[in-house]
Specification:
By secondary structure, the protein is α+β, with helices and mostly antiparallel strands. It folds into four domains: 2-88, Beta-grasp domain (Ubiquitin-like (UB roll), Roll); 115-206, Ubiquitin-like (UB roll), CATH 3.10.20.880; 216-388, Nucleotidyltransferase, domain 5 (2-Layer Sandwich), CATH 3.30.420.480; 395-600, Nucleotidyltransferase, domain 5, CATH 3.30.420. It contains 18 helices and 25 strands. Helix 8 crosses helix 9. The longest helix is centred in the middle third of the chain and has 24 residues, at 268-291. The N and C termini lie far apart (71 Å).
């Protein structure tokens, strides 16, 4: 049986079958309803109000009896069994255009970077002998011969789309052509025998491209929370532009487990793939715009005599000829549309750890369609390519020092070792330090409290808020700071229990037990002071934070104990991720999130 669903923000009614969920009806109407828990009914973020008609609620876990009586329902748990009218509630929105230096860390080429040794993309300017009645060699063989003679590449591959272009390109350039080749080895590198030299042509253009023309590559980091892209000139190793934004998959699950569950439902896997591609491709466009310098734009406009330069064409995704991607195992699976259900089910096995080279066309990246896409290898289901990238880029794999690399996030991955050995593990820390699992927790967006100081005599707090906006909740760094300050001033003990005898009205009994009020309601909103509008941290919140902290601490202590290396032997502690860049190390040590080691 079919039913009509009317949303207050939709232009026209939506017709759905009996048994459809309100989230499915909303998607059909083009309305994006957030489901951070993956549609499991755990987070309460998809609450709507049924104004007319009724739905069958499979769960109302996050709703009070009063809410239910007023018609509130969880869209992901509400089954349509008749005509219904729905009002969408105002919800917290994520700021996509984050401050770049806040999430996309500035990076430079590693010391000793040599483009003729350390990256496989090579551009060759070739002059071929034209065919004649005496030399009727085919175009492809003629091109192979020229590449072999100039670069020593014996085995050359080409895709069908490029094969179709060879004849027209060679003749348009009067047998002068520029070929971009992705090769496994450059002549002169003694590590690889010359007979194994092979390559694949990824671009052909008529004529000779000037030697100083940049050769572009993209480095892509797919985080559960944030996606970052860096645009690199492969000839110099210089990072020309960087950009980052929230992973748009967040609205379908805040952690990897929620997203795996969402991906297993209906068209969820393809939806998540498209969402992360939207994030990546949008960022690729942004870095291209940033790198398209005023000088290049000026050259395109002309020199004043009406002549335009052909050496500075508009920089776009088509100019990017190589991409490297890192991310945890689940993110890599979802990007490629690979089923990830086995990652969360015993015995916790991935479909693939070492993903073979792919083309941008296959992946869906908005760069040159023939560009090679290299996905960094993962280790296991919960130790993915992002950790491999961290271990490599930090230099710990080449250092004599014993180093501890930590990714403070939902999975809490840790790597311990040196150039001689590396061991790794993951611990289920949960998303508490990322704003989830905390009543007033939020992402690091405008209005998030990012640091707290508490007066030891009056127990009055001072806060710093992102964007200097009215405070709305706590982000991860703010929670670490608050927890440390509460412990140092005696508001809580080591077990997270409140000292209710302190002379302050900021410590009180709330609906979730004892709590500490950081911001009284009405700040920036008038003079009201109601308990429901106060920003407080509760005993339940603190318990969740302590569990997350304990999981991370247990991860590196158990790892060190398993290999017989006392923490005193660790000479460097490296904290990965955007969160690691802004963490207050002193306060993280104070609460036991990081090991207490000499700063030097």
């Amino acid at each position: 049986m079919k039913h009509s669903v009317i949303f207050d923000t939709a232009v026209s009614p939506i017709i759905v079958e009996t048994g459809a969920l309100l989230t499915e009806a909303a998607r059909q109407a083009g309305i994006d309803v957030a489901q951070p828990c993956g549609g499991q009914g755990r987070c309460g973020r998809c609450a709507v109000q049924v104004m007319a008609g009724s739905v069958r609620q499979r769960s109302a876990l996050r709703l009070s009896p009063e809410d239910v009586a007023q018609g509130y329902a969880l869209a992901c748990q509400s089954v349509v069994e008749g005509d219904v009218t729905v009002r969408l509630l105002p919800e917290e929105t994520l700021e996509r255009h984050l401050t770049t230096d806040r999430v996309a860390a500035a990076v430079t080429a590693p010391a000793g970077y040599d483009p003729l040794r350390d990256q496989p993309i090579r551009r060759l300017t070739l002059t071929l002998t034209p065919p004649s009645m005496d030399d009727q060699t085919d175009d492809w063989s003629r091109l192979q011969t020229a590449v072999r003679q100039q670069a020593g590449i014996e085995q050359l591959q080409i895709s069908l789309p490029l094969l179709r272009q060879i004849g027209p390109v060679l003749r348009e350039g009067d047998w002068q052509v520029t070929a971009v080749i992705d090769t496994n080895h450059f002549p002169g590198n003694s590590k690889v025998p010359s007979e194994t030299v092979s390559g694949k042509i990824i671009a052909l253009t008529p004529g000779h491209t000037p030697e100083d023309t940049p050769l572009w590559g993209a480095a892509i980091d797919i985080g559960t929370t944030t996606v970052s892209v860096w645009l690199v000139d492969l000839l110099t190793g210089e990072v020309k532009a960087q950009a980052a934004e929230y992973n748009r998959q967040i609205r379908r699950g805040e952690d990897v487990i929620s997203r795996i569950i969402y991906a297993s439902k209906g068209n969820g896997r393809e939806e998540l793939r498209q969402l992360v591609l939207e994030s990546i491709n949008g960022l690729l466009e942004r870095v291209c715009q940033k790198a398209d310098s005023p000088q290049r734009r000026k050259e395109r406009k002309g020199n004043g005599d009406g002549e335009k330069s052909s050496r500075s064409p508009r920089l776009c995704g088509e100019n990017i000829l190589k991409a490297t991607i890192a991310g945890n195992s689940t993110m890599m699976h979802l990007l490629l549309g690979i089923p990830a259900e086995s990652v969360r089910l015993s015995p916790f096995v991935t479909a693939v750890n070492h993903i073979p080279p792919l083309t941008a066309r296959e992946v869906g990246l908005a760069i040159h369609p023939e560009a090679t896409v290299d996905c960094l290898p993962g280790v296991a289901s919960y130790v993915g390519a992002d950790i491999t990238a961290g271990a490599l880029s930090s230099g710990m794999a080449d250092s004599e020092q014993v180093s501890l690399f930590m990714d403070i996030g939902t999975n809490g991955e840790t790597v311990l070792g040196s150039q001689d050995w590396l061991v790794t593990c993951a611990c289920s820390a949960g998303p508490a330090f990322e704003g989830a699992g905390v009543q007033r927790g939020m992402r690091a967006t405008r209005g998030a409290i990012e640091e707290v100081w508490i007066n030891g005599d009056s127990y009055e707090p001072t806060i710093r808020v992102i964007g200097d906006a009215p405070p709305r909740g706590f982000c991860g760094s703010g929670l670490i700071s608050l927890l440390a300050e509460m412990f140092l001033t005696g508001i809580i003990d080591k077990g997270g229990h409140f000292n209710a005898d302190l002379p302050t009205d900021r410590i009180r009994q709330g609906t979730h037990g004892w709590e500490y009020v950081v911001v009284w309601g009405g700040v920036g909103e008038g003079n009201g002071r109601t308990p429901t509008s106060d920003i407080a941290i509760t005993h339940v919140d603190i318990d969740n934070l302590l569990r997350a902290k304990a999981a991370i601490y247990a991860g590196f202590t158990v790892l060190a104990d398993a290999v017989g290396v006392p923490l005193e032997m660790v000479e460097r502690v490296l904290i990965g991720g955007a969160f690691g860049k802004y963490i207050n190390v002193e306060k993280a040590v104070e609460i036991g999130l990081l090991p207490d080691m000499p700063w030097e």
